[in-house]
Amino acid sequence: MLTKLAKYRFPALIAAAFFVCNAGAQTSVTEVRAPAESSIPAGPRGAAIQEGRKLMNETHQRLPKNVGNGLNCTNCHLAGGATANASPWVGIWGVFPEYRARSGKLISLQERINDCFERSMNGKPLPYTSTEMTNILAYMQWLSTGVPTGVSVAGRGFGAIDQKLKADPNHGKQVYADKCASCHGADGAGMKNGEHGYTFPPLWGADSFNDGAGMARTYTAAAFVKHNMPLGQGGTLTDQEAVDVSEFFTHQPRPVYPGKSHDWPLGDKPKDARS
Ligand code: HEC
Ligand code: HEC
User: Fold this and answer.
1) How many domains does the chain fold into?
2) Atom 2 of ligand 2: nearest residue by CA position
3) Are 181 and 173 a contacting pair, CB within 8 Å?
């Protein structure tokens, strides 16, 4: 009788346990996609997510004390940070703190965000406990919904580029005139949108990222350009064209970041880092 009961109950228990586990588990996300809008909750957390998103899309206008150029975060982290190979923020929540060779140590997500404020935005860091920083974190956490902790999504960063190609800035100048100047301007200054930032963001000059930014490095810029530019025609340039045009525009005059002399403190500075 006992054996009979055990035989009967055991599979039922397993089935029940399986059902419970499955019902509790979220679908695992390992590629870049934004969660459904409807998943933004009501209440304070939802308000923070919405506010954080606005700060990322309208950074220049909304954070004038922290932004020293004409850019918004999403000029590079395209479509709200939800585009593969345009350094998406999907999944970023679960991978920091992370070791960064440029810093020579483990850094928090707040530190990483401030790195872009100081370099890409040529501006000033946000206090770690500010409402603005908390809202940005809430937005990035929401974007990372369903991505397991510790997992880098496919499409993190800017995608592959052939690092062995030698850059030819003269050819790059020609590529720029042919394929970029129509939007970013013959002088790289972009096209302004009234008082509030740019319709087409600048690629060099006073309103651009500084020379300590990742985008000021030829091969980092080339990976971004190869996969995302000209806008709407990502993937149409060859690796050589992307490297040449990036060598050209990254080395035009731009704001100087004095702190870059402290970068790569362990001596593993990459060859395209600016000095
Ligand atoms: C001019 C282009 C540009 C702008 C504008 C920009 N970033 Fe970045 N961002 C980069 C680059 C380039 C990297 C990667 C650098 C590297 O790994 O060398 C990056 C990396 C990051 C990362 C880490 C991504 C990862 O996968 O580790 C975060 C987070 C980030 N940026 C946040 C921001 C925020 C917040 C803003 C606005 C305050 C911003 N960025 C503005 C170019 C930009
Ligand atoms: C059709 C117009 C258009 C063309 C052509 C174009 N871009 Fe862009 N580019 C944009 C826009 C718009 C953005 C900002 C995207 C956003 O905010 O969603 C951008 C962003 C960028 C950025 C990051 C933001 C910044 O200002 O630093 C770089 C770098 C860039 N483009 C380089 C290039 C290069 C190099 C070419 C030529 C190979 C090119 N683009 C061609 C419209 C264009």
Assistant:
1) 2
2) 183
3) no
Atom of ligand 2 nearest to the CA of 241: 38
Return the SS3 of 198: strand
115 and 191 in one domain?
A: no
pTM for the model stands at: 0.92
For ligand 1, atom 24, the nearest C-alpha belongs to: 87
189 lies in which domain range? Answer: 169-262
Q: Which residue has the tokens 């009967």?
A: 8
Residue 137 belongs to a domain with what CATH number? 1.10.760.10
Nearest CA-CA partner of 86 in 228, 200, 198, 222: 228
110 & 185 share domain? no
Q: Which residue's CA is minimally distant from atom 30 of ligand 1? A: 113
Q: How far apart are the CA of 152 and the centre of ligand 2, in A?
A: 26
- Cα of 186 vs its chain's centroid, Å: 27
- When pLDDT is averaged across residues 85-92 and rounded to a whole number, the result is 98
Q: Which one of the ligands is nearest to 178 CA?
A: 2
pLDDT per position as a tens digit, 139-192: 999 999 999 999 999 999 999 999 999 999 999 999 999 999 999 999 999 999
Q: Whose CA is nearest to atom 23 of ligand 1?
A: 112
Question: Which residues on neighbouring strands pair with residue 31, listed in sequence order?
Answer: 154
**In a domain? residue 255:** yes
What pLDDT, in 10s, does the model give residues 240-252?
Answer: 999 999 999 999 9
> Would you say how long the chain is, in residues?
275
**Angle between helices 239-250 and 218-228 in degrees, nearest 10:** 130
